[in-house]
Amino acid sequence: MHITDSDRTTIRSVVEKQLQAFQKDDAAGAFAFASPGIQQQFRTAENFMHMVKLAYEAVYRPRSVLFENLATVEGIPAQPVLLLDSQGIPVRAIYVMEQQFDNSWRINGCYLVPITEE
Question: Is 51 helix (H, G, I), strand (E, B) or coil?
Fold first, then answer.
């Protein structure tokens, strides 16, 4: 899969907009950036928001956000984002992206990776 500069910009924008929606407690807005598979899994924006609040506190209410360079994992675009959680503990969120039939991008999962001191 060839990722263009336009794709990179769009992917970053999708992740930024979802993070902004979480900040505003806009469940429907945040849910809209999830892939159809994720939407099917959670069924409602409220279910999705509840899961994010419980399992992804650093994503729900980051103290700071720093975008890193887009990577590909087994050919799938993955957007790493360095977050500080509410306690100031750094964590890396890896957003797995999925291109839709209309060529738009949606988030198809997010994995939190603890950052260990080197």
Answer: helix
